[in-house]
Amino acid sequence: MSDVQEGHEHPEDSAELSYYAQRAQAIEALLEEKGLCTPEEVQQAVNTVESRSPADGARVVARAWVDPGFKQRLLADPRSAVEEMGYILPDANTQLAVLENTEDVHYLVVCTLCSCYPRNLLGRPPDWYKSLAYRSRAVIDPRGVMAEFGLELPGEMEVRVMDSTADMRYLVLPRRPAGTEGLSEEALARLVNRDSMIGVTDPFIPQAVASA
Amino acid sequence: MSDSAIYQPGDTVRVRVDSPPGHYRTPDYVKGKTGRVVALCGVFRNPESLGHGGSGLPAKPLYTVEFPQADVWDGYTGPESDKVLVDVYEHWLDPA
Amino acid sequence: MTRVHDRGGWPTDESIDRADHAHADWELRVDALHQVLGRKGLRSTDEMRRAIESLPPEEYESIGYYERWTAALEILLVEKGILTTEEIDRKMAQLDQ
Q: What is the CATH number of domain A54-210?
């Protein structure tokens, strides 16, 4: 969201930090003075979020592509399946759910009310996912949105938009690209980009396949 | 946990038309629309209470409900088979 | 009543800006602060959403994502009597020195 950095026309603005940036720092300082949190706790929470990235989701997807048993477990009980791979999902208030894209059905995830996203696995959502434009358009014009991301789907494929309004956090399991039968799990994971796990794109097509 | 859930996957439901004061998680665009229950997600504490500092109890069954896009949006230009799915708490649903 | 946060299907022809910005330190920390306070039971995700939804519509639409989180945090902390607006004003002025 580009407006984050454009600042805010408050008279209090300093050259370096926006009004809200200063406000946030003041709030944190006061909470620390009152002993309600420590700088270390806050930093630790920053580190935890930063430690997760789309590469983690990509490993899960690649495992599901090569291991049918794992895929079944991932669809049936996502939390346990990702725990098998060492990903412990700390937030017990939300549930991870996996939506499988197939030849016939393509899922796209949005949160029209705020910005619900499987952060515990994928890290922070991209700015565009939180934008008012995406939240408005993804439900009413999903095919137009996907076209902007470069994905044109045939009319016979059913597009299913999942509006993540409550306690479920949705991960799209994208389709494995054709021509990748010989690739290792690690090589497959490199094809799984972040946006394909939201459903606005497909995974990358490997160079060798694309140029063949 | 499904013991307390009224609806089963496959049931047809209509989303209530309501705008209660305070916090709630049902988007406007499905209010009054008829859909089909796809799944029971589980039973979760009620955000309408949690949002205002309450306990969230009693917990509410949460369902994924699918709606044909053509029923939700006037002039939807995509294929008739396209759907939008929304997670809706049980107290927002009536049988249809 | 139209709720400013309930965006699904709002008329717009705005294209989707796919650029990601690098998060500033304060954005990472206000996100983290919400989590730390959540674990201590001092605020919940649903309360935070409710506070964000209560922002004046023009403010909701004009400020950035973590700016909304900051505004919501202040609303909740003041409401719960943990901090006062005056106290935050004073600290902000002091940090600006």
A: 3.90.330.10
